[in-house]
Amino acid sequence: MITSILLIIVAYLLGSVSSAIIVCRLMGLPDPRTQGSNNPGATNVLRFGGKKAAAITLLGDSLKGLMPMLAGHLLGLDPLALAGVGLAAFIGHLYPVFFGFKGGKGVATALGVQFGLYWPIGLCVAAVWLFVAKVLKISSLSGLISMALAPLFVWLFWDEKPLIGMQLIITGLLIWRHRSNIRNLLEGTEGRISAGD
C-alpha cells in the first residue's frame, strides 16, 4: 500500500516536469507557453523550434508516462495501483505542480502510459495515430481518435475494470483539454500537420 502511494506521488511529480519548457530553455528557444498555441507540447514546439526540439520534447513527455508504469510492473503492483500510477503521471503533465498547474494536452504522456501498461496497447494506439495523421494530416484529430479508441484496446488486451476506468478518465481529460481544437475542427479552421496541436 505504501509502495503504491509513493509511486503514485513520484509519477505525478515526474509528470509535472515539463519537457517542452526544459527543452526550449536548454536550446535557447522561446518559452512554448508564449508561442503558437501557448501549449507546452511537442506539436507547438515544432512550430517555432523545429523537428529536433519537438522530437526531444515528444520523447520526454512519453517517458514521463512510460517509466512510472514500468516501475509499477517491477514492483508487482496490482491493476488498481497501476491505474493510479498511470493517472497520476498523466494528470501531472496536464496540471504540473512545478509550472503553475498549466501543462500540455497529454497525448504523448498518455501514449507512454499505454506502452508502459502493456506494449500491444500502446502499439495499437500509436498505429491509429499514425494512420489518421497520414490520411488527414491533422495532429489534434489523430490524438483525439486514437485516444477515443484506447479504452477499447485496454479492454481487448487487459480486461481489468481499474485499467479501463483509468483509460476512460485519461481519454475524457484529453478531450476536455482539446476543446479549443475540437471547436476549430468543427469550424474547419484547425491547422494541419505540422500546425495542428
Any overview of this molecule?
This protein has helices spanning 2-15, 19-26, 42-74, 79-94, 107-117, 119-136, 139-157, 161-177, 179-187. It is mostly helical and 197 residues long. The N and C termini lie far apart (38 Å). The model has no long low-confidence stretch (mean pLDDT 94).
Please mark out the parts with pLDDT under 50 across 5 or more consecutive residues, or reply none.
none
Strand composition percent:
under 5%
- The oligomerization state is single chain
What overall form do the CA principal axes indicate? globular
Give the fraction of residues assigned to helices. over 70%
Write the H/E string, N to C: HHHHHHHHH
Task: Please render the helix and strand layout as text.
Blueprint: H1 2-15, H2 19-26, H3 42-74, H4 79-94, H5 107-117, H6 119-136, H7 139-157, H8 161-177, H9 179-187
